[in-house]
Predict the 3D structure of the following.
Amino acid sequence: MGGSRPNPGPTQKTIGLVAEWDSLMVLEQGGFYKGIYLILGGLFSPLSGDDAESLDLERLRARLAEGPEELILALGTTVEADNTASYVKRIIESEFPSVRVSRLAQGMPMAADVKYMDQETLRQSLKWRQPL
């Protein structure tokens, strides 16, 4: 008999790593991400005095020990986000080599015109271009 299946809860196969609660809320509002989240508690920013000790890396290690397939770095595209992503990736590679690490795509936003893009956005768009 027909009938609808209940919407399954989050999958434990992917972890979306965000810096703060507000990033989690924006992703959650979209309703398209079906994995679990982990809030890192900030970004690695030595110039501001935020070092790796200020991040919740023990909770991240505990979650990774549960055996997810992928960690999605949803940290943004700032210098601090890139530094944090590199730091976290090194941890994953050395301690959890079976976990795939990915990041959100970078480049031109929808409905944007090339003539209005800054050079870094264009550079990222070319670097991460996709087949059509």
In short: Strands lie at 11-18, 35-39, 70-73, 100-103. The chain is about 35% helix and 15% strand. Residues 79-95 form the longest helix (17 residues).
